[in-house]
Predict the 3D structure of the following.
Amino acid sequence: MSYTKSNMYYDDYKWSARADHDNPKIIGGTDHAQLNREEGYEMLYFINSLAKTWNWKNPSIGSFQKLEKIIRKEVPSSIRTHSGIKTWIAQNYKTI
């Protein structure tokens, strides 16, 4: 199961890439890339990639939404890279 736009907890995201070089579907997300937490397509890509990386088996929409809330509201805003956010979550949450 993939997390989709219609499943997202927050509805205030922007949904257009400024340019192709800013679109994770085109460039592929990298660990050193910064995550824009206001861009819906970036959040979806990142959340789905974390679920895949962490080998989530049959995740619920609730699990995806919890991860979305953690990224938006709990991860310090000073942590911006994919790898930094991933590390922070892993250090602060045993289960999601």
Observations:
- The chain has one domain: 5-92.
- The chain has a mean pLDDT of 88.
- The chain is about 45% helix and 0% strand.
